[in-house]
């Protein structure tokens, strides 16, 4: 064994909100629309050109010409236009490798507004204050952003530790910058901590097999027993959301079929989106803190492989087979969706690796119905959402239902009953049938 440190290359992103003035926001919007149109032009040209004549240089030529001739396409920096072309070509490669569907046109609505800054040296980042940094955005100028993480800039930057580029993305809360960061860090020592099974419950957000649990103090149900639809919002925010939803429904009732959405209605929709985005951020923040904590504490983390889409899909049913308890089930669905189990697993996967630990998945069936003391599935053991009382006359173990499931999950791992984890990556979410994941190669 050598005592030399192993070094590990790491690539990750860091997102910060930009402090843009209203005028700059309009400029950014223009750039994003130009980027989207460039994509559409490229796609149009590609699909119109006969197969034998398709080539990259032809697309490149077309982009250059369009930027010269169409004035409002010129607001997009040339580098960003090149990045659109690169992304488009990559989209086809992903399709040919059966990792994604064919690229298509990007609609004005429902498309995420984004502009790429492919070269890190264009950014010229400075830290100007304990809490603020300044970044150069092409054709916009110097823009402040909140400094919440030490970035490899200035003297800290070198060949191995640097920012390689960024992407500007707009969501309900405004324009953000996502830095692409590359670092060289010492590889972590293998984690010697304990093993833990984790169950995602509705009553306990994350129950651990050793009797601990991770809670965010936001119960799934309101005091009157109904499911809490927006548990990450405060009381006044919930009231505001209700008011906005009522206003939206009222305004929508005046809209005739095929009539454009009025500016007022769109404004209300935007406000609803902002509140929802706030809720999502709070949930993600809790997940980040919790998963970091788990990855630091435990050497091996065992989770069950759940198919969330199938779990939440079936509330309303179909016309032929209407669902039962639709209202109750859809309330539960909202609770499951709000816990965002899939994201927890994604975060745990890379965080466990960063602290030298491992994440293992086990098959899900019956982990919540089986008794973790005697191993039998006896009907009626799951008394309600929260309690598990074993109905096996020789056992009679009782305890929290979520802890019981977590113990079962750990047991499945210990007897070697694990599933192969596909590498984390894109195109696993909206994959059609017959399309293989990136890791299958
Ligand atoms: Zn039992």
Brief description of this entry?
This protein has nine helices and 14 strands.
Describe this structure in words.
- The chain is an alpha+beta fold and 441 residues long.
- It is built from nine helices and 14 strands.
- The protein has a seven-stranded antiparallel β-sheet with strand order 2-6-7-1-5-4-3.
- It is globular and about 85 Å long.
- The two termini are 34 Å apart.
- Zinc ion binds next to loops.
Number of helices: 9
What is the N-to-C succession of helices and strands? EHHHEEEEEEEEEHHEHHHEEEH
What percentage of the residues does DSSP assign to strands (E)?
15-25%
Q: Which parts are unreliable, with pLDDT below 50 for 5 consecutive residues or more? A: 423-432
Helix content: 25-40%
Structural class: alpha+beta
Arithmetic mean pLDDT: 85
What molecules are bound to this protein?
zinc ion
Shape: globular
Number of strands: 14
Task: Enumerate the strands of the largest sheet in spatial order, edge to edge or round the barrel.
Answer: 2-6-7-1-5-4-3
Largest sheet: 7 strands, antiparallel
Distance between the termini: 34 Å
Radius of gyration: 25 Å
Which descriptors apply to this entry?
binds zinc ion; seven-stranded antiparallel beta sheet; 37% helix; 19% strand; alpha+beta; 441 residues; globular
